[in-house]
């Protein structure tokens, strides 16, 4: 549902911008990347083994998880946290990285697992600042970043995904979080097909 709604909104925006000559080049770039999405998703799904090991060796023993990002990736953080909560029953929160100093930073220490989405877009330098703040408090963030990004220290654990046009990057960055939620649920002995207390439709007023 998340991915289909995401694509539907992008297609709506493309339709509304059709008569904007100044946006023609960006529209073409987005349309070209839409055609390439299946290939990018297949590349990301190939990380499954790595993500299974990450879930087993790092996250399965934890009680909470923070997922941080900015801009287009904020929605990815919220959806990823929701998926982990509803499928694996692990407490997880999606946090806007720009609001770290307004409360969430107090939670950061060497024991709090953090996933930081830091892809190459206009907000990349600001997310780098959030990474520095987490690292300064002895945090050990897991970074979802783009392939070929040489600006990230080798001391951090990374999940590298293909780079696409900024407004479509969330389609790719959500895949590792969905896979993590699945593997965490399996490790916790949870039936991923029937999450408890979950209703896909409103049944009561």
Give the SSE layout.
Elements (H helix, E strand, L loop, with lengths): L1 H15 L7 H22 L2 H12 L4 E6 L3 H16 L2 E6 L17 E5 L5 H13 L5 E5 L10 E5 L7 H19 L18
Parallel strand pairs: 1-2, 1-3, 3-4, 4-5
Helix pairs in contact: 2-6, 3-6, 4-6
3D structure, described in words:
By secondary structure, the chain is α/β, with parallel strands linked by helices. Helices cover 47% and strands 13% of the residues. It contains 6 helices and 5 strands; from the N terminus they run αααβαββαββα. Strands 2-1-3-4-5 form a 5-stranded parallel sheet, sandwiched between helices. Strand 3, helix 5 and strand 4 form a beta-alpha-beta unit. Helix 2 packs parallel to helix 6, helix 3 packs across helix 6 and helix 4 runs parallel beside helix 6. The protein is globular and about 50 Å long. The protein starts with a helix and ends in an 18-residue tail after the last helix. The model has no long low-confidence stretch (mean pLDDT 92).
Spatial extent as radius of gyration: 18 Å
Derived from helix and strand composition plus strand pairing, the structural class reads: alpha/beta
Measured distance between first and last alpha carbons? 23 Å
| H/E topology pattern | HHHEHEEHEEH
* Helix share, percent: 40-55%
């Amino acid at each position: 549902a998340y991915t289909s709604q995401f694509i539907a909104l992008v297609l709506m925006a493309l339709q509304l911008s059709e008569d904007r000559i100044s946006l023609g080049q960006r529209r073409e770039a987005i349309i070209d990347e839409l055609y390439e999405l299946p290939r990018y998703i297949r590349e990301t799904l190939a990380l499954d083994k790595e993500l299974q090991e990450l879930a087993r060796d790092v996250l399965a023993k934890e009680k909470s998880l923070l997922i941080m990002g900015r801009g287009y990736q904020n929605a990815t953080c919220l959806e990823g946290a929701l998926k982990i909560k509803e499928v694996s029953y692990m407490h997880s929160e999606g946090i806007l990285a720009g609001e770290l100093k307004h409360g969430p930073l107090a939670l950061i220490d060497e024991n709090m697992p953090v996933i930081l989405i830091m892809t190459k877009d206009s907000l990349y330098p600001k997310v780098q600042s959030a990474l520095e703040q987490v690292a300064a408090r002895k945090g050990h963030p897991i970074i979802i970043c783009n392939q070929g990004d040489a600006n990230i220290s080798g001391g951090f654990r990374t999940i590298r995904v293909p780079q696409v046009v900024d407004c479509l990057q969330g389609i790719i960055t959500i895949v590792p979080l969905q896979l993590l939620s699945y593997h965490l649920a399996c490790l916790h002995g949870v039936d991923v097909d029937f999450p408890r207390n979950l209703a896909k439709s409103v049944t009561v007023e």
